[in-house]
Design goal:
The structure is a single chain. Helix content is 38%, strand content 18%. It is α/β, with parallel strands linked by helices. The chain has three domains: 155 residues, 2-Layer Sandwich (Nucleotidyltransferase, domain 5); 151 residues, Nucleotidyltransferase, domain 5 (2-Layer Sandwich), CATH 3.30.420.40; 196 residues, Carbamoyltransferase, C-terminal domain (DHBP synthase), CATH 3.90.870.20. It has an eight-stranded mixed sheet, sandwiched between helices. It is globular, with a radius of gyration of 23 Å. The termini are far apart. 51% of the residues are buried.
C-alpha cells in the first residue's frame, strides 16, 4: 500500500511516500526550489517521492493532507471577528489569500496530481503525533505535541498503542508555548518561524534574570495547562507579535540586525528557562494522563534541544523519542503514517528511524557536473577518501561533505554537511564569518562516534538527530572548544557505524590522527539558504564560500 502525505500553505511544505507503513521517500520543497521555508504546493518534492518509489500518482492508494483547512479557516475568522476593528487591516491583507488557499486544497491536489483516488485530511497535531509515534521504537507511549498552532490546538497529549493513537487533552489558540517563544523571537529582532533556534543559542550567553517578567506572560496550572496573559501579545489582531505592554515590561525591542546587548541575552536565557519549566510540566501531565513509561515528542517546540535535555534529565519517562523532522515538514510524514497504520492497519516496523529519505546522486550523475566546473578533482575509494579528508580536517581545512541520500528534517546529519576541526578554538569564528556568513554567537554541533559519546558528554544513551544538548564533561571542554557552548553544553550527534558507515569511518579516521573522535558538523548551506540538495547546489555553495575542499560522492574537489 502506497500513501502520499503532504503539507503546504503555511511553511515548510513537504511530501512523504509511505509504503506498507514504512517511509521510503521524504523531502521538503525548499530543497528543490531553493526558497527557504517554501510553503507552496510541493510539486518537486512530490515528483521526487513518486520517482523514488517508482510510482505514478494514479497508483497511490491514498493522499493525505496534514491538517483540516476548514477548521483552520474557522479559527482565523472567529479570531478576526473577536478582535474587530483592530484586526481589520490584517484581514484585508491576508484573508483573501488564506481563504482561497484553504478552500482550494482538495481541488488543487486532484488537479495537479491528476488524482481521483482517496483523499484524506488529518488534524494538524494528530499528524505531528503520528510522525513521532509510528517511527518510534515503542509499542506503547505517551505522545506530546507542542507548536505554535494547528487548526485550534497548540498542544496535544495522546496515548499511542500499537496502531492506534487516542487523543486525550488539548490546549487551544491563542494559548501557545510556540507563540510565546515566537513573540519573544520577534521582540529580540529575529524572524518568526525561522530564527527561534537563534534565540535558543543566544540564551546560553545570558543570565536568567528576567524570569519573573517572562512568567508574567503566562499563567500555568498544576495540571500542566497554561494561558497566555493576552494584553502582552498582539498576534491575534495585527502582524506584530507583541504589544506595547510587553515593551513596557522588558524595555525597547531590538531592531533586526541591531547590536545584541547583554539584556537581550538575559531575556533569551529567561525565556528558555521558562520554556523548559512549561515543557517539564506538560510532560508530567502526559505521564499522568497515560500512565506510560515512554514519551514521543513532536511539533516545532520539540526542536528546542536544550529543553529536551532538561526533560530527559528529569527522569519523568524511561525512554524519549523525538521526531527529527518535528515541524510541518515532518507532519507530511505523520499524515501518511496515520492513514497507513490507523486507517489501513499496516503493520508496525520497529527499529532505528532513518532520516536519510531524500535524493542521492550516482557517480555518473556527479561527474559531468564536476567536469563543467574546471576544478581540480580526483576519485578515491571509501577508505582513502576518509583518510584524506581526516588529514585535511586535522590541518584545519574546512570540508563540504555530500554523500548518499539527503536528510529529511532541518538538521544536516552527515549527508549534506560542512565539517571542521572542533579542537581549534578559532574554528567557530572562522566558520561563522567566512563560510556560513552568520551571527558570531551562533554555536556549532559536534558529531561523535557512538561509542565515544559518553567519554565527551554527559549523555545517557544516544542522540542521532542532534535533538539533545547535554553538558560537555569538564575535562573535555578544552579539547573541543569549537563545539562547546558558552554554558558548557553541546548539541550532540552520535554517529552509528551501522546506520552511517562512511561518516562514522571519517570520524574514526580523524580520531586516529588527533585522538579526538569528534567533528564539527554544520549544515551545508549559507545563511538564508536551504541546505544543498543536488551536486550543482553543493558546488555553488563551495565556490561562494571559504570551504577549502569538497568531498562529493567518491570525488575530492579542491579550488587550486
Amino acid at each position: 500500500m502506497n500513501i502520499l502525505g503532504l503539507s503546504y500553505n503555511y511553511h515548510d511544505a513537504a511530501a512523504c511516500l509511505v509504503r506498507n507503513g514504512v517511509p521510503v521517500a521524504a523531502a521538503a520543497e525548499e530543497r528543490f526550489s531553493r526558497r527557504k521555508h517554501d510553503a507552496r504546493f510541493p510539486a518537486a518534492a512530490i515528483a521526487y517521492c513518486l520517482a523514488e518509489a517508482g510510482l505514478r500518482a494514479s497508483a497511490l492508494d491514498a493522499v493525505v493532507f496534514y491538517e483540516k483547512p476548514a477548521r483552520k479557516l474557522e479559527r482565523l475568522l472567529q479570531t478576526a471577528k473577536a478582535h474587530e476593528p483592530q484586526s481589520s487591516a490584517l484581514v484585508a491583507e491576508q484573508f483573501p489569500r488564506l481563504i482561497a488557499q484553504g478552500l482550494n486544497v482538495e481541488a488543487e491536489i486532484r488537479e495537479r496530481l491528476n488524482y481521483t483516488g482517496e483523499l484524506l485530511f488529518c488534524e494538524h497535531h494528530l499528524s505531528h503525533a503520528a510522525s513521532a509515534f509510528y517511527v518510534s521504537p515503542f509499542d506503547e507511549a505517551a505522545i506530546l505535541t507542542v507548536d505554535g498552532v494547528g487548526e485550534w490546538a497548540t498542544c496535544g497529549i495522546y496515548a499511542g498503542s500499537g496502531n492506534t493513537i487516542t487523543p486525550l487533552r488539548e490546549l487551544h489558540y491563542p494559548h501557545s508555548l510556540g507563540l510565546l517563544y515566537s513573540t519573544l523571537t520577534a521582540y529580540l529582532g529575529f524572524v518568526v518561524n525561522d530564527d527561534e533556534y537563534k534565540v535558543m543559542g543566544l540564551a546560553s550567553y545570558g543570565r536568567p534574570r528576567f524570569i519573573r517578567e517572562i512568567e508574567l506572560l503566562l499563567q500555568q496550572a498544576e495540571d500542566g495547562s497554561f494561558a497566555l496573559t493576552l494584553p502582552y501579545f498582539s498576534f491575534m489582531q495585527e502582524r506584530r507579535m507583541y504589544s506595547e505592554k510587553l515593551v513596557e515590561l522588558l524595555g525597547p525591542a531590538r531592531r533586526r540586525e541591531g547590536r545584541i546587548e547583554a539584556r537581550h541575552q538575559d531575556i533569551a536565557a529567561s525565556l528558555q528557562a521558562v520554556t523548559e519549566k512549561v515543557m517539564i510540566r506538560l510532560a508530567q501531565a502526559a505521564r499522568a494522563a497515560t500512565g506510560q513509561k515512554n514519551l514521543c515528542l513532536a511539533g516545532g517546540v520539540a526542536y528546542n534541544c536544550v529543553a529536551n535535555a532538561k526533560l530527559k534529565q528529569e527522569g519523568i519517562f524511561e525512554g524519549i523519542f523525538i521526531q527529527p523532522a518535528a515541524g510541518d515538514d515532518g507532519a507530511a510524514m505523520g499524515a501518511a503514517l496515520w492513514a497507513s497504520h490507523q486507517l489501513h492497519n499496516a503493520p508496525r516496523v520497529y527499529g532505528a528511524h532513518d532520516t536519510l529519505l531524500g535524493p542521492a546522486f550516482t557517480e555518473a550523475e556527479i561527474l559531468p557536473v564536476l567536469e563543467r566546473t574546471g576544478l581540480t578533482f580526483f576519485r578515491l575509494d571509501d577508505a582513502a577518501l576518509c583518510t584524506r579528508v581526516a588529514g585535511l580536517l586535522a590541518a584545519d581545512m574546512v570540508v563540504g561533505w555530500f554523500q548518499g541520500r539527503m536528510e529529511f528534517g532541518p538538521r544536516a546529519l552527515g549527508a549534506r554537511s560542512i565539517l571542521a576541526n572542533p579542537r581549534n578554538p578559532d574554528m567557530k569564528d572562522i566558520l561563522n564569518a567566512r563560510v556560513k556568513f552568520r551571527e558570531e554567537f551562533r554555536p556549532f554541533a559536534p558529531a561523535v562516534t557512538q561509542i565515544a559519546a559518553a567519554d565527551y558528554f554527559e549523555l545517557d544513551g544516544i542522540s542521532p538527530f542532534m535533538l539533545l544538548t547535554p553538558q560537555v564533561h569538564p575535562g573535555r571542554a578544552t579539547e573541543i572548544p569549537a563545539v562547546t557552548h558558552a554554558d558548557g553544553t553541546a548539541r550532540v550527534q552520535t554517529v552509528s557505524p551501522v546506520h552511517q558507515p562512511l561518516f562514522h569511518s571519517l570520524i574514526e579516521a580523524f580520531g586516529v590522527l588527533t585522538g579526538t573522535p569528534v567533528l564539527i558538523n554544520t549544515s551545508f548551506n549559507i545563511r538564508g539558504e536551504p541546505i544543498v540538495c543536488t551536486p550543482a547546489d553543493a558546488l555553488r555553495c563551495f565556490m561562494g564560500t571559504d570551504i577549502d575542499f569538497l568531498a562529493i560522492g567518491p570525488f575530492l574537489v579542491s579550488k587550486a
